[in-house]
Write a structure and sequence with these properties.
This is UTP--glucose-1-phosphate uridylyltransferase. The chain is an alpha/beta fold. The protein has 2 domains: 197 residues, Spore Coat Polysaccharide Biosynthesis Protein SpsA, Chain A; 109 residues, Hexapeptide repeat proteins (UDP N-Acetylglucosamine Acyltransferase, domain 1). The protein contains 10 helices and 23 strands. It has a 4-stranded mixed β-sheet. β14 and β15 form a beta hairpin.
Length: 348
Amino acid sequence: MSVPLILMDSFNTQKESQEELNRIGFRQKFPTSFLQHKVPRLLKRDLTPISCKNPDEEWCPPGHGDIWISLLETGLLDTLIQNGYKIAFVSNGDNLGATVHPGILSYMLKERLEFCMEMTPKTLADKKGGAIYKRMVAGRAENYQLLETAQVPPEHMHEFEGLGKFRTFSTNNLWIDLVALRQRILLGSFELSLIVNPKTIEGQEVLQLETAMGSAIRNFEKVKGIIIPRDRFAPVKKCEDYLARRSDAYHLLENYSITMSDKRKESGLGEILIYLDERYYKKIGDFNRLFPEIPSLELCSSLTVQGEVLFDQKISIVGEVVIQNNETLPRRISDLKTRILESGKYSF
């Protein structure tokens, strides 16, 4: 049986997604995309829908938790079930390590599980990863629930982000029994945790109401959190992530997923801590301009770049390195007159 690839798009992404799939000639029996809902942004002061000069700014996607209801309402859930598909693997589109794993699928079928969440050990680079927990009510443990960063009070954020209380976090790689999902939704008691996301739009303080797809775990009895290798979690959410994945710290596999290099694994190094000055590296266009050459990061544990620095030649960065440009004009990495930067601070 072939495995279809189906994207959940928002009104912001569907056009571009389809253009790219058409460009590469991707075809399959099933639709390649379905559209999630959109909801109004609300004024923080009175919870009424906002009004903007740009009407598109008045709306937002309601988070990736919308996937479950959207699958049902678009008819895709029934179509998949009718065509013999029992289990779906769901992941964030930006996770380059997420692939269909036969071993996890076999385990889920063998144990007759309804919902599985892939977890991986937390590092200092994973402050925002969600965690699963069981809430105690009247001395009795309820079903597993997902705790997301946006739900944590500021006074407890240090506990949530630390490595003591929550030692693993959700990769948002999820496995779900489609029949069980359909049954739970149609029962009318399907619940997702609400996330209130504050934003500023056209000078107005607004709230976006969102849900996370992992919070669906609370609706099922037969669930597991599975500890998986870090290789299955390689997101690209910011330019720092993009730099790490583009470097030799990761290798592209035949199935077009990526994995951490053997040399890095053997050295006991985990995820690279990268901090790029947002004034110069936040947007992909600026990143590409300032990184015409991607440095070797295979043995780098952390890299901090302060100020505008053009990486105009191939260099190797080893250990914990800080590169600092204190001048108002950009500087070239070649000005350091070395091809290897070992642990330390390098200033222009």
